[in-house]
Amino acid sequence: MKNGLTKDHSISLHGLAIVLMLYHHLFSVPSRLGCEYFSVIDWFAGEGTGERAAWFCKICVAIYAFTTGYAFSRMNLEHTAPISCQRMLKQLGRFAKKYYLVYVVFIPLGFLLADFSSYGAKAVVLGLFGDTTYNSEWWYVKFYICALIAFPFMDTVYRNLYDTLRFKHSEILSMLCACAMFVFIMNLTGEPKTYAIILMEGYACSQFRLFELADRLVKTTWRRLALSGILLAAVIAVRVALSTGVSYNTIDIIIIIPFIYSVTVIFDFAKGISKFFCFLGKYSTYMWLTHTFFAYYIFRDFITISKVDILMFIQLFIVSLLTAYLLTKLERLFDKAAENLRPPLHA
Hints:
The protein has helices at residues 7-27, 40-45, 49-56, 59-74, 85-113, 121-127, 139-165, 170-188, 193-208, 210-217, 221-242, 252-269, 271-281, 284-297, 300-303, 309-341. Helix 1 (7-27) runs antiparallel to helix 4 (59-74), helix 1 crosses helix 13 (271-281) and helix 1 (7-27) crosses helix 16 (309-341). It is an all-alpha fold. It contains 16 helices and no strands. The N and C termini lie far apart (45 Å).
């Protein structure tokens, strides 16, 4: 990673994150599925293994938060000027387009096939602004929007402090002050502090070029692979050992950087695996926004029809991916139609 996390790295990480998310939401609270099922993983590795594996998979949220912070930093490749509100609004517009497309497709389905009508008209309006009434797993929507709004102010504080102080280690002090301000703002909005901190870790990793530094210190591919294998095994062991329930995430603050580094090094070595997750990553936003409608709210009986954990996961994976593919095609059609409606530019 001599150039740090690239765009392809981030997309591949999102692909990995969505696979972990699907497993996490399916099996971290088995009672939510409303049925008894046979767990192949429990049969093979012992009772409760599948559920604990699903608790570990909650690290998927930390992956998204970290790569979001890293990407925010990389928006300005020269690292010389604060990130503007205009850039953040443009980013928000891209996400809103996907969110509202999912909203207008799945919320009416919920009225037809589930009991969404019981929530009343207020839920319909609030849902347009990221409310979680219809889908409690949409809580990250509000977190992401709040981060987009708060981030330009944090970035401005960091850069202005650094330009003003200009003494030894002032960059670190400036970063700590900016991070504290960002976490404080996010906390005021009620967003989880853990993921606000992790988002800032991603930002700091990019600013201080920590992954590039790691590559310079560990010079050969085989040494990086060996280190990555050890780090990944340690991260998994620590995360599983400390997980006390489905909501546990505190240790992610410590383990997310070695996790991201080790997985990315493995991606660089195993190109086939990287390409597979990169393919999934291109559809990960739609898969995230839609998969719990299949798992919990509208089509749960269809997903759980096999009553076997591995088959249920494969079924949810295929249905979510196909849905994401179709929504992507639909989005492109709308984009093309909007482009054709624009008046031609005259010289």
